[in-house]
Amino acid sequence: MSDPADRQRSAEGAGAARRFRPAPLLFEPRAGEAEAEHFFDLESIEDPGELLRRSTELALAFRAAAERATDFQAVAAAELADPRRFDALSCAEIADRADWTPDYAAKMVEYGRVLQKQGRTAE
User: Fold this and answer.
1) In whole angstroms, what is the distance from residue 30 CA to residue 24 CA?
2) Which of the given ranges, 6-15, 26-35, 70-79, has the highest pLDDT on average?
């Protein structure tokens, strides 16, 4: 037989295992109901001044995020086109991957190289 302390540890271990089991689902979620669309709760703001302030704040934040994402795209394009890479891509291949025109891809590669020289690579 095992000692009482071993039985206690065994019981505690079993209790710990039971505690982490997921709770049973008692109902099925309704799949047919469409949830109301929410856009940062702007639709719930009734004061037009507050709505303008909050929506402007969001627009500026999205604009800044889009500019930063474009910088990351440019750096990635420059890295992919780097002739020192054994698997360097042409501007046409980069354009195909990013759904750009080859001319735009060439401009993004150049912009990415400028950013790399300035030290504004992916941080």
Assistant:
1) 17
2) 70-79
Distance CA 118, CA 71 (A): 12
d(CA 7, CA 61): 59
Q: Is the Cβ–Cβ distance between 107 and 73 less than 8 Å?
A: no
Closest among 109, 86, 85 to 97, alpha carbons compared: 109
The three-class DSSP label of residue 74 is: helix
Helices 91-98, 102-118: inter-axial angle, 10-degree rounding: 100
Query: Residue 122: is its pLDDT beyond 80?
Result: no
**Cα–Cα distance, 97 to 103 (Å, whole number):** 14
Residue 88, classed as helix, strand or coil, is: coil
Of 53, 54, 59, the closest CA to residue 41 belongs to 54
- pLDDT over 70 at 87, yes or no: yes
